[in-house]
Amino acid sequence: MSCSTKLLISCLLALSASLALGSKAMAQDRKGLNNVYKKYFTIGVAVTPRELKSEEAGLITKEFGSVTPENAMKMGPIHPQQDRFYWTDADSIVAFAQRNKMKVRGHTLCWHAQTPRWLFVDSAGKDVSKEVLLKRLHDHINEVVTRYKGKIYAWDVVNEAIADDSTYLRRSKWYQICGEDFIAKAFEYAHEADPKAILFYNDYNTEIPAKREKILKLLKSLIAKKVPINGVGLQAHWSVSTPSREELERSIKEFSALGLQVQFTELDISVYAGRQGGQLVQGQQPTGSSAFTPEMEQQQLEKYKMVFDVFRQYRKKITGVTFWNVSDRYTWLNGRGRKNYPLLFDAELQPKKAYWEVVKF
Question: Would you give the end-to-end CA distance of the chain in angstroms?
């Protein structure tokens, strides 16, 4: 073997060793999102029972400090009939969190969607009275919150009660029968069932001035009435084009000025421009095999970097950030009719470039 060949082999071995050490260092550097941000705020994730029994479970426990049931605690899934509750899925998520010393955010006690029809009608199929509906709301909240008392630290009590059009409150069945009283009552019932739970109002498009003003109006009204509300959840279904840094900062400042906790409760950043909002278009499935292009990757990376720069800047006003779904393997945004890649982990559960922009600061 010639000297030059020996030298080449030696160099290759040295390079291999260097790459191995680099990979090992990278793995050691990956402490997990929640550990990286433990001095700032809790980082959580929305989960399904299936994910807790699959390879995603390891990623969830490594990266996050809290879990939110994506659907398992919504009225329809957990209380499908007046005399029947379905606890299995919700119980499994809470048990997983307890085994792994994770927090749980309850989601959601009162919403216009995924709500069973029986709540609103009598045996003849006619709308019930306000008194009957509020009693059913009380009984539902009392049953659910009491079951998880001491195990769930925070609840999204009322979800998306503000209208997207020029009106103030959404003309949901709750509003049609009860007026706006159902909102305050829901918080009172939740506080009665668990006085130590942190209670949130949760909504989307909170960076759009017109909607933000209506949400602020509602929150100020609840505070003035001494309703037991503790926080506001800003859903954060964003995109590579929205929100701007200025819009985001203004929302944090205005909501935190009310003296309420601010949490970003449903964070994802769509690779498609425009307002994503919070409403799923039912029945659609991804079309085609659209790729995660380098342009999408770069735009998303820059948006995630900006968002977390702002989060860290306002860390004293933010108590939690929750991603809406674990990885690009499954995301609710695919229900909008096109394949999306809105999260920090790809379909193989590996961190994307955006992940490193979030943890390296």
Answer: 48
Annotation marks residue 160 as catalytic? yes
* Rg of the chain on CA atoms, in Å: 23
Q: What is the pLDDT of residue 142?
A: 98
Check if 266 is active-site: yes
8 Å CB contact between 280 and 332:
yes
Q: Over the chain, what is the mean pLDDT?
A: 91
Q: What is the pLDDT of residues 7-34, one digit of tens each?
A: 444 544 444 444 333 433 344 458 999 9
Distance CA(209)–CA(183), nearest Å, equals 22
- Residues 79, 83, 84, CA angle at the centre, nearest 5°? 45
Comparing 239 with 281, the larger pLDDT belongs to 239
Within 8 A by CB and 6+ apart from 334, the residues are 285, 286, 340
- Can you tell me the distance from the alpha carbon of 165 to that of 154, in angstroms, rounded to the nearest whole number? 29
CATH of domain 33-359: 3.20.20.80
Candidate list 51, 63, 70, 266, residue with the active-site label: 266
Q: What percent of the chain has pLDDT over 90?
A: 85
Catalytic residue among 51, 63, 70, 160: 160
- The domains of the chain are located at 1-30, 33-359
